[in-house]
Every structure is written in structure tokens, then in C-alpha cells.
Write a structure and sequence with these properties.
By secondary structure, the chain is of the alpha+beta class. The chain folds into three domains: about 90 residues, Nucleic acid-binding proteins (OB fold (Dihydrolipoamide Acetyltransferase, E2P), Beta Barrel); about 290 residues, 2-Layer Sandwich (BirA Bifunctional Protein, domain 2); about 120 residues, Gyrase A, domain 2. It is about 30% helix and about 25% strand. The strands form five sheets. An eight-stranded mixed beta sheet has the order 6-9-10-22-21-20-17-11, with helices on both faces. A five-stranded mixed barrel has the order 1-2-3-5-4. Strands 12-13-16-14-15 form a five-stranded antiparallel beta sheet. β18 and β19 form a beta hairpin. α4 crosses α15 and α7 crosses α12. The protein is globular, with a radius of gyration of 30 Å. The chain starts with 17 loop residues before the first strand and ends with a helix. The structure holds aspartic acid. Aspartic acid binds next to β21 and β22.
Length: about 600
């Protein structure tokens, strides 16, 4: 037997016991006649002590132990004189009687401690060492716990987990596919699923009724902190349901996870916010509702006073930052700089300081009388002490910029707390999105999303106005999940393809298997998928999903540990019948 206990479990109640522990040497220090070693495993850290006087040979061995050596130590549990009450095992130590080095370690490239000296790149290259650090390890264990609770809940309400293939045909989630060349059928390719969308719909045709899967999805897009080329979804689909059945079922999942993982319960139903209102009042389809600061439309009260910036603008909107009326010039300059950043894109910022004493001072004073400014205050719903921040321009862009400014102010005012959660459903998304570049409509969600039945008559006359029967679960400004009621009628599906500019042949070519299946009795169905990595990261109180994935890729999609993507051998290329166009330049 390698060990009797783990390094995380011995306490004073075990004093006097003979035990054997295994683990890694976190660090060792010599103090006079004693050598202390912190022994670490997955469960915790236990202190080992070697006494030079009573066992000089053993103590000599201990002094030769290097960082990250793997050892086995046997001895007696003793009460410690110098206790460390910060860790559960901190009241005891093991007086070692036998020591065995199970394996040596080279000096690790960075210190394996919370406060590591290793930078991101180095830690990722040696991710297996990084994973020995408590916080990273705990993230992975949190991920496991969330997955377990998802399965418990879904099973408890009759969902069946079904695995779907990874080598498939392209799925319509709007990103680029990763593709895999076929050896047996040269010149053809599999696509990796952007999601199991079509397959879960086929499972509904198959009669599975309630399906879910914790599943890997692959999208070849540009990466950000909350995106990875391969990521995990909790993918779900149900038959014989309407939108509200889905919202209720999965609000149930959200509540269950919050309760089990964070111990948080939410009173009442989650807010349901129509997309149009989300855009109008928050400038975003994923509003952070941990704080107010709604956007107010000031267009009609500020236009027409000779102030060019406002008079020529399509839309003028503002937010009230509470308690900021005393902002200094430097602070308002900073905000102006913020909104002018290329990614925010505003031309400038106009402010109105509504002093706690009722005074009104604006950066556009020249053009407005105090009475005019009072109207601004009224329209914006400002209170004494507020700083009203105003942007003007093309409506969509200005709302987007106001959304960023709102988030910035929320952050500055400490209103975006990591341990506060504001979940909501955004509903009634538009069905279609117009793309200027290609001059055509695209499905905002995917082409199987059902139009809102009330808007069906607009499909051919004014497609841009059609609302989808689609919904997103948004928490703290993050889209945690999204889905829709699906089209199950052949006629509506045909109409949708027509509006999207697919010919019958193109639709058949890409989705023939699904359209065929729909001819054999497709039940009404609907579904949703949640970004599992994002949800776990949110529970862990962090923005980056990378720290919650055991072996993530970097911002250029590289796995720096495996050193991939990498070239493959000529033999493999030959087997696949692949010839590079610029072979000589691209490959040595
Ligand atoms: N397949 C969709 C997605 O990955 C989710 C859904 O409609 O169920 O976003």
C-alpha cells in the first residue's frame, strides 16, 4: 500500500497514529537541528519533520530532497508546536521514521505556488505543473462538480444523455468549420460540429423527447478571453414543448446549479426582457443587470439648439452615473478618452453635472439655458449628485458605445461584483440579420429557428421585422446560453431557406438529411445550449474560461504544451492525397 492517508486529512484527532503519506515536495527548510518538508498532493499539504539529533541519517536524506520530488514518508502524527490555522492539517505534523524517494524531479521552470513567478506562456507550456497549483486545480474540480450537478438535474427530470458523432457534416452556427480530410474517400472532408444542432433535432424525430449532452463543439473563429476553438456546451432539446416550457425547465437548471454550487437562491421568476428593450435601454442583447444606469433617449430634448454635434445626430442618448457629479476635469477627460477608443467608436462625450445642491453644469453650457438642462435631467431621470453622460451619432453605434460606457461606469463604481448574479432571459430576437457586405439576410440564430407565428405574414414582405421564437439566458452581461423553438413544418422551413437565399438544391445539398427526416413525422420541438466553460468560469468568479479548462489553447489557437497545430509527415499527406499549393515556400 503506497499510502494510508492523503495530505489533506490528518488533524489533531489523529495524533499518535502511524501513517504513510505520498506526494510532492512543495518546499523544505532547515531550522537548526530540524528539517521541515511541506508534502503536497491533490487533497492538501501536510508538514513532515525530520530530527537531526534522533535520526541523523534520515534527516540527511531529507535535506537532499528537491522541489517536486515524489516521496513516500511514514511516521507518527504529532501535535505541532507552531500551528498554522490557515490549513486544515495545520495543527499536526508527521515525525518521519521512513522516507523513500519514489521519483526525482528536475527543478521546475516556475514555482508551484499560488504566487507563482511563472508567466502565462510558461505555465501553459508546462500545464501539468500549473495544474498542481491549488487555485487551478480547484477550478478543474469545480468544473467536475458543475458537470455532475448538471447530470443529476437533467436525469432527475427525465433527460437522456446521448452522444453524437464528432466527424460530421457542417452545422449552421455561423462560424467557420474545422475540417478533417477523409483518407478513404480522397478529396472529401468531415466537419467537426459547431454544435450538435442537427443531430439533436434528428433525435427528436427519433422520439427521444428529452435529450441532453455535455459535449465538445468546435468553431474556427478569432479568439478572446471567453472563447476557445474547442469548447463545451450543455446541449439540450425537447419535444412537444413551447417556448415557455423551455424557459421554465432551464430556469430550473440554472436555479439548481446556483443553489448547489454557490448556495444562492433567486426569488421570483427570472426577468424576461424583449430584445428590442434590451437594445433600447442597455444598448446590448446581453445586458448586465447587476446595476441600473439605463440608457435614456434624449434626442428630442437636446436637438435643435444650434449645437452641431447634437443637431446632426441621428440619436442622442445618456446614462446617469450616480454620485459622480463631482468628477474632476481629469476624470471626465478620461471618460472622453475611453469613448473615443476605436473599439468604442464615439466621437466625443458631453456631460451634465447635476450637483447634490441642485446645480447644473454642462460641457455644452454655451448652447443650453438652465431650463433646457432641466429638461435633460427630467428626461434622463437624473437625481442630484448624478453625472449625466451623453453620446450622439448613428443610433445603433451610439447605443453600443453607451453600453460600453455603462459597463465602464458600473465597473468604476464597484457595481459589477463577482459574487452578485443577475440572470435574465432575453426573448424575441430578430429572426434575421441583414449583412451589408453580402447584401443578404442571415439567420441570427440558425436556419431552423422558428419565426414568431404572429410575424409569419412579414416573412416575404418585411423579413427584417420578423421576430424569432428564440431566447438567451444572460447572467451578468454574459450570454450563458441560447436556443429557440424549431421549425417543424416543411412549408415554413422552405420559406426560411428562400428568405436566406438558399435554392431548393442548395438546401437539399447542405441539410437534405434533416429535411428528409422531417418528412417522417417531426414532432414540435425546441431546445437550448449553454456555454459550459463560461458558466463554470462565472461560478469561479473569473472572466477567462481558459483557467477552467485542463489543457486550453492560447489566443492564436495553439496548444503550446503539445506544440500543435503542427505539420504532419509526407506519408500522412500522401495517404490523404493532399498536395500543398505553395509546397516549396510553405514547407521546408
Ligand atoms: N445550437 C445552438 C448553439 O450552439 C443552440 C440551440 O439552438 O440549441 O448556439
Amino acid at each position: 500500500m503506497y499510502r494510508t492517508h492523503t495530505c489533506g486529512e490528518l488533524t489533531l484527532a489523529d495524533a499518535g497514529k502511524n501513517v504513510t503519506l505520498c506526494g510532492w515536495v512543495q518546499k523544505s527548510r532547515d531550522l537548526g537541528g530540524m528539517t521541515f518538508v511541506d508534502l503536497r498532493d491533490r487533497y492538501g499539504i501536510t508538514q513532515l519533520v525530520f530530527n537531526l539529533e534522533t535520526n541523523s541519517v534520515l534527516c540527511g536524506q531529507a535535506r537532499k530532497l528537491g522541489r517536486e520530488y515524489v516521496i513516500q514518508a511514514s511516521g507518527v502524527v504529532r501535535e505541532r508546536s507552531n500551528k498554522n490555522l490557515k490549513i486544515p492539517t495545520g495543527e499536526v505534523e508527521i515525525e518521519v521514521e521512513e522516507l523513500k524517494v519514489l521519483n526525482r524531479s528536475e527543478i521546475p521552470p516556475f514555482t508551484i505556488e499560488e504566487d507563482t513567478d511563472g508567466g502565462e506562456e510558461l505555465r501553459m507550456r508546462y500545464r501539468y505543473l500549473d495544474l498542481r497549483r491549488g487555485s487551478v486545480k480547484n477550478n478543474i474540480i469545480l468544473r467536475h462538480n458543475v458537470a455532475r450537478e448538471v447530470r443529476t438535474y437533467m436525469d432527475s427530470i427525465g433527460f437522456v444523455e446521448v452522444e453524437t458523432p464528432v466527424l460530421i457534416k457542417s452545422t449552421p452556427e455561423g462560424a467557420r468549420d474545422f475540417v478533417v480530410p477523409s483518407r478513404m474517400q480522397p478529396g472529401t472532408f468531415y466537419a467537426l460540429p459547431q454544435s450538435p444542432q442537427t443531430l439533436k433535432q434528428l433525435l427528436m424525430v427519433a422520439g427521444f423527447d428529452r435529450y441532453f449532452q455535455i459535449v465538445k463543439c468546435f468553431r474556427d473563429e478569432d479568439l478572446r478571453a471567453d472563447r476557445q476553438p474547442e469548447f463545451t456546451q450543455i446541449d439540450c432539446e425537447m419535444s412537444f414543448v413551447e417556448r415557455d416550457d423551455i424557459l421554465e425547465t432551464f430556469e430550473g437548471l440554472a436555479r439548481f446549479l446556483f443553489k448547489k454550487i454557490k448556495g444562492i437562491e433567486f426569488p421570483g421568476q427570472f426577468t424576461r426582457l424583449p430584445y428590442a428593450e434590451a437594445m433600447e435601454f442597455y444598448g446590448s442583447d446581453k445586458p448586465d443587470l447587476r446595476f441600473g444606469m439605463k440608457i435614456a433617449d434624449l434626442t428630442s430634448v437636446v436637438r435643435g439648439h444650434g449645437f452641431g454635434v447634437f443637431d446632426t445626430a441621428d440619436y442622442i442618448g445618456g446614462i446617469c452615473a450616480p454620485g459622480c457629479s463631482e468628477y474632476s476635469r481629469k476624470q471626465t477627460d478620461e471618460l472622453t478618452e475611453f469613448v473615443r477608443k476605436p473599439q468604442i467608436g464615439a466621437k466625443g462625450l458631453v456631460y451634465l453635472k447635476y450637483g447634490a445642491d441642485g446645480s447644473l453644469k454642462s460641457s455644452a453650457d454655451k448652447f443650453y439655458s438652465p431650463e433646457d438642462l432641466k429638461l435633460w435631467v427630467e428626461r434622463a431621470g437624473a437625481r442630484p449628485g448624478d453625472l449625466l453622460l451623453i453620446l450622439a451619432g448613428e443610433k445603433k453605434k451610439t447605443l453600443a458605445a453607451l453600453s460600453e460606457l455603462r459597463l465602464e461606469m458600473g465597473g468604476r463604481l464597484g457595481l459589477r461584483k463577482k459574487d452578485v448574479f443577475a440572470p435574465l432571459w432575453v426573448v424575441d430576437f430578430p429572426l434575421l440579420e441583414w449583412d451589408e457586405e453580402t447584401s443578404r439576410f442571415y439567420a441570427m440564430h440558425h436556419p431552423f429557428t422558428s419565426p414568431n407565428p404572429d410575424d409569419l405574414n412579414l416573412m416575404e414582405t418585411d423579413p427584417g421585422k420578423v421576430r424569432a421564437n428564440a431566447y438567451d439566458l444572460v447572467i451578468n452581461g454574459v450570454e450563458i446560453g441560447g436556443g429557440s423553438v424549431r421549425i417543424h413544418s416543411e412549408d415554413v422551413q422552405k420559406l426560411m431557406f428562400k428568405v436566406l437565399g438558399f435554392s431548393d438544391d442548395e438546401a437539399k445539398e447542405q441539410f437534405g438529411f434533416l429535411l428528409n427526416a422531417f418528412r417522417y413525422g417531426a414532432p414540435p420541438h425546441a431546445g437550448i445550449a449553454f456555454g459550459f466553460d463560461r458558466w463554470v468560469a462565472m461560478f469561479g468568479g473569473q472572466d477567462s474560461i481558459r483557467d477552467f479548462i485542463a489543457f486550453p489553447k492560447n489566443n492564436s489557437g495553439r496548444d503550446v504544451m503539445l506544440d500543435t497545430p503542427a505539420e504532419i509527415s509526407q506519408k500522412q499527406l500522401d495517404e490523404l492525397n493532399i498536395l500543398f499549393r505553395k509546397k516549396d515556400q510553405d514547407r521546408k
